[in-house]
Write a structure and sequence with these properties.
Strand content: 35-45%
Distance between the termini: 105 Å
Shape: rod-shaped
Number of helices: 4
Order of helices and strands: HEEEEEEEEEEEEEHEEEHEEEHEE
Length: 439
């Protein structure tokens, strides 16, 4: 057995040469698979984050706000008033209406004939000797433009525009649409009653509205004659030239519907005339809104329910006050008053002015100041900019949790949430992937 010699101090042991050993293929495969797996996970994560989205629809409740107040309109507006005009007028109209009766048809058509004027040569006026023994005499034409005949008895009064009274000297029957010439004399003696020019007379004994249709007209001067002088013979009255079919004397009973129909028709006509007249007094009235107040001063008919006739006269008198005001100024003021009533954190919804009513409460045409009562309704809702309605509130939450959070907000009516793809039960954590629609 060979004895190994001890190493000398400071010597290095040299072993057999060694070479690197190659790694086994399975190690590389594991590394590759791990990298691929991580890559797939990252890609899937990115795809999930970019593909998941949610559609959230929040329907807000609409609450209403009500306005009931007054607005002052003035021609020269002060603080709190809006510019406008206050105008007033009184309007009267009389018209003839056919009787429809129970059948609803006129008994007979109303035919108006054109009277033929009679021209008489003027006679000279003698100078009176004794006023107390002088009576003014002459002739007049009784003209009837009404649709029915009119009987005037002897001594029927005739009144001049300056309130001088005369009387006719015979009983006459004036046909519809015609005229009759009759002698007339002054009710009192004196040369002051001598008429030197043609004069129109009213007949005060007739129904007031009928006086516009039946009246007297003198075409020659009245002469002053002695009291006991015979009355001059009137000139013959020519027969009227008919312009239509003469109306029979029969008729039918007037009903309340006839009266009501006539008054409504006449009121509409008067109001239409009043609106045009009042609008003509206001500059730029077509660009302004208007409120009317109508007061019936009087109305009358010369026929009563049950009276048999084929036509009657109806008359009405109205006081009409119109208040004109600026549309834009009124609308802006109403909007402002409504918005003042909307609670904080709520949004005033677009207001068109359709739910507004105006009523004239008082008007002073002299000062041109009026008070209009305004009632209006509008809607408001929770403001979409509310911090409670932001995407960050529901991002990353489950569908049920997000719906519960939104539904608990005061002012929210309903909530609908749809997540894509549908198998995912939560909302994306990224706010950009959430589509929030507030209605």
């Amino acid at each position: 057995m060979q004895t190994l010699r001890p190493r000398r101090p400071g010597t290095v042991h040299i072993s057999a040469p060694s070479f690197p050993v190659g790694a086994r293929p399975s190690v590389y495969r594991k590394i590759a698979y791990t990298f691929i797996g991580l890559t797939v996970v990252v890609i899937l994560g990115v795809l999930w984050l970019t593909s998941v989205r949610a559609d959230v629809t929040v329907k807000l409740r609409h609450d209403s706000v009500h306005l009931d107040g007054v607005v002052e309109v003035a021609r020269t507006p002060q603080s709190g008033q809006i510019p406008g005009r206050v105008v007033k007028g009184t309007y009267t109209k009389t018209r003839e209406f056919s009787v429809l009766g129970q059948a609803g048809q006129p008994a007979n058509p109303v035919v108006t004939n054109t009277p033929t004027p009679v021209v008489t040569t003027p006679a000279p006026v003698p100078a009176p000797v004794d006023d107390s023994n002088i009576v003014a005499r002459g002739t007049v034409r009784i003209i009837n433009t009404y649709s029915k005949k009119q009987v005037l008895v002897k001594t029927t009064r005739l009144l001049t525009p300056d309130n001088k009274l005369y009387r006719i000297d015979a009983t006459v029957t004036v046909p519809p649409g015609g005229e009759v010439t009759v002698a007339a004399y002054a009710d009192k003696p004196g040369s002051a009653y001598v008429l030197t020019a043609p004069t129109k007379f009213t007949i005060p004994g007739l129904f007031v509205d009928l006086q516009k249709f039946i009246y007297a007209q003198s075409d020659a001067a009245f002469t002053g004659v002695a009291k006991n002088a015979p009355a001059p013979a009137p000139a013959p009255t020519p027969a009227p030239a008919p312009t239509g079919t003469t109306k029979p004397k029969n008729g039918q009973a007037v009903t309340q519907d006839d009266i009501d129909r006539a008054e409504k028709s006449l009121t509409d006509e008067v109001l239409n005339d009043a609106m045009k007249d009042l609008a003509s007094q206001v500059d730029n009235s077509s660009n302004m809104d208007v409120v009317y107040v109508v007061n019936v001063v009087s109305k009358s008919n010369n026929a009563t329910v049950g009276q048999v006739t084929d036509s009657f006269l109806s008359s009405i008198k109205l006081d009409v006050t119109a208040v004109y005001y600026s549309k834009d100024d009124m609308s802006a003021l109403v909007r402002s008053k409504l918005k003042d009533r909307v609670p904080d954190g709520r949004e005033f919804l677009p207001f068109t002015g359709g739910a507004v009513t105006y009523a004239l409460e008082s008007a002073d045409p002299k000062a041109e100041v009026a008070t209009i009562r305004v009632t209006a309704d509008a809607d408001y809702r929770l403001s979409p900019t509310s911090p409670l309605l932001q995407k960050s509130v529901i991002a990353g939450k489950s569908v049920d949790e997000a719906k519960s959070l939104l539904s608990s907000i005061d002012g929210v009516e309903s909530v609908n949430i749809t997540v894509h793809p549908s198998w995912i039960s939560g909302l994306p954590a990224l706010k950009d992937r959430i589509n929030l629609d507030i209605q």
